[in-house]
TrEMBL record:
<keyword id="KW-0378">Hydrolase</keyword>
<dbReference type="InterPro" id="IPR000073">
    <property type="entry name" value="AB_hydrolase_1"/>
</dbReference>
<feature type="domain" description="AB hydrolase-1">
    <location>
        <begin position="33"/>
        <end position="277"/>
    </location>
</feature>
<dbReference type="GO" id="GO:0004301">
    <property type="term" value="F:epoxide hydrolase activity"/>
</dbReference>
<dbReference type="InterPro" id="IPR029058">
    <property type="entry name" value="AB_hydrolase_fold"/>
</dbReference>
<protein>
    <submittedName>
        <fullName>Alpha/beta hydrolase</fullName>
    </submittedName>
</protein>
<dbReference type="Pfam" id="PF00561">
    <property type="entry name" value="Abhydrolase_1"/>
</dbReference>
<dbReference type="InterPro" id="IPR051340">
    <property type="entry name" value="Haloalkane_dehalogenase"/>
</dbReference>
<dbReference type="InterPro" id="IPR000639">
    <property type="entry name" value="Epox_hydrolase-like"/>
</dbReference>
Length: 294
């Protein structure tokens, strides 16, 4: 018989943190260095299904679902106010609940302003950062933000509806997965179908539209994020789908302005780089983590 291939198993777990039942995926040795994966809109920890086992032989890999996404449950009595400040606070409470004292951060899309807030609050915990299309510079905001910028300047019902059509609809979510991808047949449809189903649960679309409005506060915080990079200088890899219409390549290059320990790598793909280039991302991560985490 052929030798079996050892693939680390991923467990699904839940923990109470900040009055929220946080759903998360976990794999790898309990005593290994921790890699914390923070997802973006409109997805969940499901986006890391292929990356987790490619890291978990050497690292304890933990991927939570943010409140409002995936399978994390926010009870009505919690009266949760959805904002990026709140998401970061819940994720800090999540790391406390799991007793995570040190970790490397992988941030993508919404995970970036969430994770960068966490890093500013507790810089001593962050050993390294991987930013995959996770923006912190106005240079990185592409033209696809036009309807959202209009919503920021005038949060009227009409502009809110335009954002709903552009971002929360099935076609809008599918666009995020396929735009800029050289071979769309390489992207399995289950990812965007699952995102669409979970984002459009009763009441959840309004949460998403509230977060789109609050994203303007992330842009206001960009100078603070940049100050953190200058002060803490974490080992940082900006690995970027260069055809992303939302977060464009200048946003990746900009990290080097403030952080001498930043490196940049571009991939010939779109926003969801892991759907097409998970091997390349995993190899680049292992190189960074090997130098900075062990």
């Amino acid at each position: 018989m052929p030798n079996s291939v050892e693939v680390p198993l991923t467990a699904v777990r839940r923990v109470e943190a900040d009055g929220v039942t946080v759903f998360y995926r976990e794999a790898g040795p309990a005593d290994a260095p921790v890699v914390l994966l923070l997802h973006g809109f409109p997805t969940s920890s499901f986006q890391y299904r292929e990356l987790i086992p490619r890291l978990a032989d050497k690292y304890q890999v933990i991927a939570p679902d943010l409140p409002g996404f995936g399978f994390t449950e926010v009870p009505e009595r919690r009266q949760y106010k959805y904002s990026f400040d709140a998401l970061a606070q819940t994720m800090l409470a999540f790391t406390d609940a799991l007793h995570l004292k040190r970790y490397a951060l992988y941030v993508f899309d919404y995970g970036a302003p969430t994770g960068f807030r966490m890093a500013m609050a507790r810089p001593e915990r962050v050993m390294a950062i991987v930013s995959q299309n996770g923006n912190a510079y106005e240079d990185g905001l592409g033209d696809a933000w036009a309807p959202i910028r209009k919503y920021w300047s005038d949060p009227s019902a009409a502009n809110r509806e335009e954002v709903r059509k552009a971002a929360v609809s099935f076609e809008g979510i599918k666009f995020q997965y396929l735009q800029g991808v050289k071979n769309p047949e390489a992207v399995g449809p289950e990812a965007y179908w699952l995102d669409y189903a979970l984002v459009n649960r009763p009441g959840n679309t309004e949460i998403q539209l509230d977060l789109f409005l609050d994203y303007a506060n992330n842009v206001k915080l960009y100078p603070k994020f940049q100050e953190y990079f200058r002060t803490s200088k974490p080992p940082l890899l900006a690995i970027w789908g260069k055809n992303d219409p939302f977060f464009i390549p200048p946003g990746a290059e900009a990290f080097k302005r403030d952080n001498p320990n930043a490196t940049v790598q571009f991939l010939d793909t779109g926003h969801f780089a892991l759907e097409t280039h998970v091997e390349e991302v995993a190899l680049a991560m292992r190189e960074l983590l090997g130098k900075s985490v062990g």
